[in-house]
């Protein structure tokens, strides 16, 4: 996949809920400066995998390595401390607050007992400028006044404000029009170009092929394949998602025939 050491690597991770095994010996390698798309049908295990990485659902077994070293992540605070941030589909923005206060929500800067508005505004502007964001008129705009693409931009900027190393985006273009999708995909590409490792969950194969360096395909809780995007076609991704195999890529027949599924 790459000569680099993965910043985040999972080896043989498993996760079950009662009798239901949701993730089965999943391997995943995430590299700095690259966009990895995580794809799979509904119920394939994408959300569980991401929540495991984020510490919401600790994995039952397997190895979790960060920057080449084994780590234990059993709660979100531990993932955040490593530099892992997740932007969920609902964005978790407060409409009644402005851009600055949303970016610092729950992590407000203060001077004594009062908020340090000057520092927060400066850091918000610097972060947005560093991402080449030019679609916001003011960092003091209410979030309620922003378009879907602008809201997604604010949520992503909030994630990278904290010296993050890995940013996970859950369906970042799902509710957006063509122009706003373009803005967000360009921003995703800039995150990777700035050296961050980016994971995207997406159902849109055109977006996946356009912005990804590599694609990880889950099938019924198994990692069917993780392949460089330049070696994949739209139809091959769809085959991997729907059948777990495409040509010589994907799961071994014994897995597909049910011996380990």
UniProtKB/TrEMBL annotation:
Residue stretches making up the ABC transporter domain: 8-245
Keywords associated with the record: ATP-binding, Nucleotide-binding
PROSITE patterns in the cross-refs: ABC_TRANSPORTER_2
A GO term, aspect molecular function: ATP binding
SUPFAM superfamilies (alphabetical): P-loop containing nucleoside triphosphate hydrolases
Record's protein name: Unannotated protein
Organism: freshwater metagenome
